[in-house]
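Blinded run. Sample ID left blank on purpose so nobody reads anything into the name before looking at the predicted structure. Input follows.
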Amino acid sequence: MIVGFVRILFYVAIGPLLLAFAGNVAIAGALILGWATAEPGSGPLDVFAGFLSLENLTQAYIIGVVPMLLTGIVALILAVPFSGLRHWLVVAFGGASVSAALAWLVFISNPISEGADILLLAVVSAVAGGLAGFLCAALFDLLAGLRRRPA
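Blinded prediction complete.
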């Protein structure tokens, strides 16, 4: 029971930061593929400018706590039937699904702007949620494995 609580707490503590980083990776990928456009003179690497600023980190935790909480619950439920890489991949799929669904609901109910591409925002959210879920599952299992080893 305590391990489940620690797992969910780990996802809520570390997940939003990983979600923000993965979101920046997804946005940079969309810029490289030409699906999204940037201001003239800025490129895919400019997405990471100010990533660790207090404002960006605050926004990451405001936006990322709910998806990572739900992803942590999915990881807890799937910890029994799956292990190792299979568990990490299934949690990544769960994180992608949760993030895409929440993004779709948020962007449909309250669009960012008139011409916003809702599908692009949902795909970027899904990639970010999947990558963050995968990294959280892998990090938790690796850290838990280090703790279980005898000294």
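Unblinding after everyone has recorded impressions. The chain has a mean pLDDT of 84.
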